[in-house]
Amino acid sequence: METVSGKILSDDMEIKELVSKNEGEKVKTHGMIYSIKPMGDFAFIILRKRDGLVQCVYEKGISKFDLSDIGCEYSVEVEGTLKKDDRSPNGFEIHAETIDVITKPHDEPAINISKRKLGLSLEKDIELRPLTLRNNQKRAVFKIQEGIVKGFRKYMEDNGFTEIHTPKIVATGAEGGANIFKLDYFGKKAFLAQSPQFYKQTLVGVYEKVFEVAPVFRAEKHNTTRHLNEYVGLDFEMGFIKDFREIMEVETGAVKSMISTLKNEYAKEVKMLNVVLPEFDEIPCVKFKDAKEMIAAEYNRKIKDPYDLEPEEEQLISKLFKEKYNSDFVFVTHYPVKKRPFYAMDDPENPKFTLSFDLLFRGLEIATGGQRIHDYDEQVKKMISKNLNPEDFESYLMIHKYGMPPHGGIGMGLERLCARLIDEPNVRYTSLFPRDMTRLVP
């Protein structure tokens, strides 16, 4: 009888194993051929593996295969002798004796994916994503993204947060408005979730501190460099807060963890993409109204919208705080009630404003958060003031009806944070397969 033990047994070596081998040892590995560079009687064959590139050397008369038998994007298995060489990726190369072809492509690649810069328009890049993602620079972008999520999750777990997984097909929009995708759910009206807001608040009453990494859907009819119709949200919610600034402290700690993870575990990708990681101990805070007035005075700019920040204002606030306080981040707090959702708690000192905030990073809002209303009567009153029918939110109001501690949290956009870190101008570059108004494929 055959059994399966869960032990992964393979004589194929990954890069970390190859690095540890001694000069002259026989080694075996696999990968996809990234590029072939003929040099007369020898050639460099670059393999693309899950954790990087490996340089193999073909030598005429020694290697037991012919270069004409292989090509780019062939899946192969290589055996040969390891040689140390600081000029090679990872400090070694394999002098290949044999290459066994496992699979070969049906067609020649449409572009040379081994070039450092592909030189494609954004639209062409997205159209060819199944291929362009194989480019080493492109792969590095999404390893950076992996590091951001790893740092976020690590901080949450280390600080007592429980990871949750909430529904993305919902009966009610968390933020209302027109920016919500409608679904026919077996004859019933349903929507794609704009946010896990209702569920993460509900689970504060269960676990006290919760977090989620999951897709968020917005049916906004826009075509800007900062918006996607589906993006990845990094969310957390926490209970028993005494002040909404506690939420900002946790968010700051999470961001520090993300940056630290990239610095310590993703140095190769950080270097490859010339990423300048922000260095900070604290993040400055400024009230919404004060921020507006500061940049109006500093840059001789008229305030056009008294209720929200325009993209240009976000850029100018970031510029001002970078120049004055050398900070890449800034919290803008106390947004007006008019522009915040019905669950945002009003500021008891000035009920025209809320105990909420945005986090700006290098000119772009990357996160929104704040304290939520936890009292039942206060929540119902706020809904009515926003022309909402409390009966439509019966299951959500159940948490208020049966008791909730003071609580709050944030939602952060993964693609926006990643784009700002690697200095890409458009969030589509930091979405694996972007969804916008015109694109459902690839």
Give a brief outline of the structure:
With 442 residues, the chain is an alpha+beta fold.
Write the layout of secondary structure elements.
Elements lengths: L14 H5 L6 E13 L3 E8 L2 E8 L15 E10 L7 E12 L18 H6 L1 H4 L3 H23 L3 E2 L5 E2 L11 E4 L2 E5 L4 H11 L1 E9 L12 E10 L5 H21 L1 H6 L12 E3 H11 L12 H15 L3 E5 L12 E2 L2 E5 L1 E6 L2 E8 L4 H10 L8 H8 L5 E7 H8 L21
Parallel strand pairs: 3-5, 6-10, 12-13
Antiparallel strand pairs: 1-2, 1-4, 2-3, 4-5, 7-9, 8-9, 10-11, 11-18, 13-16, 14-15, 16-17, 17-18
Describe the structure.
It is a single chain. With 442 residues, this protein is of the alpha+beta class. 29% of the residues lie in helices and 27% in strands. It has twelve helices and 18 strands. Helix 10 packs antiparallel against helix 11 (394-401). The longest helix has 23 residues, at 136-158. The radius of gyration is 26 Å and the shape is elongated.
What's the total number of strands? 18
Structural classification? alpha+beta
Shape: elongated
**Count of DSSP-assigned helices:** 12
Helix amount, in percent? 25-40%
Question: Characteristics of this structure?
Answer:
442 residues; alpha+beta; 5-stranded mixed beta barrel; 12 helices
